[in-house]
Amino acid sequence: MLVADGAGSAVNSREGSRIAVQTAGDYLFNQLSGLKGVHLKQHITAWEGSDQQATINAMLHHFKQAATLAVNSIQNEAICAEQPVKSYSTTLLATVALRTDNELFAAAFWLGDGAIGAYSPSGKVRILGNPDSGEYAGQTRFLDQSIIADPSFSGRISVGKWNDVSHLILMTDGVSDPLFETDNGLRSDEKWTRLLDELIPVLTDASIAPERLGDWLNFFSTGNHDDRTIAVLW
After folding, report:
1. How confident is the model at residue 135 (pLDDT cuts 50, 70, 90)?
2. Structural domains in the chain?
């Protein structure tokens, strides 16, 4: 699952977010649908010490490649359109997930604001990364070459496997800001439980869940008018 949010001040940011999701998503799907995906699944299923390290190494490679391709695609579009590449500024949040028996494996890449959470019915939430928050409201990091070259790129990757996770949720800041308000709020089990209390009835019938989730995204929140995107695995 992937979500992205273009910078509000960048005129081509919606196209930038579309390109980022399409490019990174296509790469991850193609890579993990073949033999590499088979080998990765074997490590995830076994999940011993060496398997965990092999999985971390593989996901770091795949997420870095996906981000690099997304950056290159945005740069190519900017060149063709004769537009500044910064006008395509976008965040990017991505997960690769696999259910094995009663367990959920998830690997996450987090660039920018928004949220990625793995929620347990007990009310516990695991936040799969850290939002890039600036000194001022709405200030964050966007996908570009400096992100790829950053020696701390691996810090944007989270990998885990749990037997108590019912929902994996990605959202842009248009959803996370009104729901959690602050970085501390993002780590509040109580706030996540309130969110799931609203989402679970919406997701009851999988055949109409996308439409009902779209309706839910229209919730009113004073002072919050940003574009909203959410993706849920349950």
Report:
1. low
2. 2-233 (3.60.40)
